[in-house]
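Here is this case:
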Amino acid sequence: MGTTKLTRKEILAEDPVHEAIIQVIDLFRENGKKIGVIAVLVAVIAAGIYGGLQYLDSRESQAQERLGKGLDFYHAQLAPDATDDPYSKGASPTFRNDTAKYQAAAREFSSVVDSYSFGKVSIVARYYLALCQLQTGSYKEAIQNLETVASNSRNRTVGYLAKKVLATYYAGSGNSKAAAEIFDGMLKDPQCQLPREDLSLQMARVLVAQGKRDQAIKLLRDASAQGPAFSMFKQQLVLELDKLQKSPITASDTQGVRP
């Protein structure tokens, strides 16, 4: 039986890989300009994305640097002979008094909040800005900043810390109802990771201020029976419970209690 001989052109035409290459070459030949424009656009977009990420990284680094400076000021030491330059005595900043220290720290935190408001660093900065404002008597601004941080879900831990500061402020200013609502909500929140012994202790003090001594004792008993046997707040909790149980009942302790 004879064989049929194929030409080189016919052999290449039957090669699927070669056929695909031929089609790509034809595509570029027919649409070269369009493909070139698309390639340029893709390159420009990729460069833009890369540049944008680099810019965001740079801004994040700047924000962290300003936050770090603010924290250094916030925790700075006091020295009667300190000058207007916080670094005049060395690498660690020093200030004449607390007011100067917290005002300087507040300026750094405020700069982070104003210039880098979309980053997570700004949440921490706003929290510390509120703490500085509480120290310098700017209570209205402090409450506003604490409420903003407390309602932000990007950093839950700082949000819960802001709630605790808010509740403590309300308790100290005589608004025990608002304080109780916040502490109670945190105790019932399964996502709250703050020490429950501390929250229970603070809540019990608010209940006592409301004349709800029995409820405070029950709360402390329940809290002392839960959690680890030894913790930072366990001893304080037990001492507070013992103090309440031994203290005489006053007229205010019966407020709100039905016969």
Q: What stands out?
A: Residues 188 and 194 are 12 Å apart (CA to CA).
